[in-house]
Write a structure and sequence with these properties.
With 251 residues, this protein is α+β, with helices and mostly antiparallel strands. It is built from ten helices and ten strands. Bound molecules: adenosine-5'-triphosphate and magnesium ion. The site of adenosine-5'-triphosphate (ATP) has 19 residues, from strand 1, strand 2 and strand 3.
Length: 251
Amino acid sequence: MEHKRLISDGDKVQVYEIEGNAVKVFKDPHEPKSVVLYEALTHTRVEETGYARIPSLEEIKKVDGKWAVAYKFIKGKTLAELMKENPEKVDEYLSMMVDLQIEINSYRSAKVSRLKDYIKRSIEGLDVIDDVKKYELLTHLESMPKHVKLCHGDFTPDNIIISEDGAYVVDWLKAKQGNASADIAKTYLRFCLSHRTEYAEKYLKLYCAKTGTAVKYVQDWLPLVAAAQLKFRRPEERELLLTWIDIVDYN
Ligand SMILES: Nc1ncnc2c1ncn2[C@@H]1O[C@H](COP(=O)(O)OP(=O)(O)OP(=O)(O)O)[C@@H](O)[C@H]1O
Ligand SMILES: [Mg+2]
């Protein structure tokens, strides 16, 4: 029998190291095949952009009766682990993270799903806000510039692995083509949701300074990415997300 070592145990997936691969196993034996194949397809499309800091997809298979996607195993620690171990280096790590995200956003893929469509569908499907609020948010979304930059969609320190030959980025399930500022707003939101508001603020400032972007331009995306995040119905996120939705600035 092949030897497998558990690397990560999350809400929906477990990741094992099996014979040189990181195998992402979907916990639910009834996980729709379309979800598994969508992750694999999105990852492949990102690989095809030429972006190199991504592990190659090796195989789609079943492990103990559950669907799994095997990626080349990247040896190293996640940036989240390093931030915990070396808090004095957090500024350096955040700066490295911003550089990585700017690089990702410089790639294009016409085949990856569109971020604005995703946010629109997510808002339309919400039942925690009324139709007036939905209309306000959708109008706001409509007014936002339409870009086609590669966005990771969940660019957090957990999804960055620092190996001997540099950083690699994993977990491309939510990758989209869209506005880079929306991708930054999502990272900002994820820091806030994990009670790292001071990292969120630093990240936003660093990004804006490095790219010459107005802070307000990124902030304008916050209610929209917050609304899209509400669809996951996580009770612990609800209050903060509803607060973000209420700060829509219509000017
Ligand atoms: N190619 C890889 N090489 C080494 N480790 C990996 C690789 N891919 C993923 N991991 C590890 O597994 C963890 C979880 O993987 P991933 O981010 O893809 O799943 P996830 O969707 O965040 O899981 P969940 O949804 O359950 O939170 C990563 O944070 C990383 O530590
Ligand atoms: Mg992840």
